[in-house]
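Morning F.,

Quick status update on the modeling queue. The single chain you submitted on Monday has been processed. Sequence for confirmation:
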Amino acid sequence: MDSSIPQSPTQVLAPTLDRFTALDWSNGVQVPHLLPHDRLIVRTLNSTYEIVVLVPHTASVMVRGGQFFPDFAPAFLAGSSLGGGFLKLHGVYVGLRMEFATDDLPIITTHVKTLSVHPARDGQVM
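Structure tokens below.
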């Protein structure tokens, strides 16, 4: 069964720790809570990303999309942020920016607009 994450608007007024911790964390997903080969489809302001979970507890993924991932490439999903400072470790959340760690450099996306989770089916990977 595919599931979409609620698209309630996340209002971010200032990047303070109080405001960051008070955000509605129900509009996202933690990679360590997923299973290997589960797939995320994430639409940001500028791009669409397809993320396949490899090792949930380390947030090791294969990612395709945007300017820096034209083909599937290995990465670690560091988490989501307001664009620096505070990071919701290994999570993807509507209204925040995804941050990936690669062998070359860190990648920070534009704000996540929508997110859907597609559980793996019968050994299907990509």
